[in-house]
Amino acid sequence: MKVIVFGATGSVGRLAVAKMVSEGHEVTAFARNPERLDIQSSALTRVAGDAMDARAVAGAIRGHDAVVVTLGAGKSRKGTIRSQGTLNVIRGMQTHGVRRLICQSTLGAHESWDNLNFFWRRIMFGALLRPVFKDHELQEHLVRASGLDWTIVRPSAFTDGPATGTFKEGFGGQERDLTLKIPRADLARFLTRQLTDLAYAQRAVGISN
To answer: Of the residues 31, 33, 65, 179, which has the fewest C-beta atoms closer than 10 A?
Structure first.
């Protein structure tokens, strides 16, 4: 499958690109500085661009079978790259007839709010990361309204380390027995799985240990 990843040099994006390449997909890494990827493979194409540049985004999407969005604003707490970048992706997909969209969001968005504990509800997303959280919620709204074949993936807080494969997935809003942590490597594998597994098509799915 020909896949383009937006946010390909982020902490999750680079792992997702590596996993997709290892599973035989042809991957285009779209990022401001794609040369930062230390992956050497004939199946990897690097495209330098800004997700806020609608024309560049649309041009890069043409000819692909699926799009994966792992956009992040780095240390910025007020950036709108997630929502505005995703909107550019959606419009590019609509223009070029690309249907499959896999978008990384965050656990706690919309109906998954009750999965969070007091710390995440009141301190992190309620105060410190409130603009980031609202941008994720807008991002999800845009994806749901896109008319595309989408899956929204909602991970809990990231940790380092190897993939474990032991995380929970697809739980309801009443699930409380969660550590609210997940290795980035597990998330990368889960995003890759969505390319060929349509069990969560037209759904937002939470994943967490």
So the answer is: 33
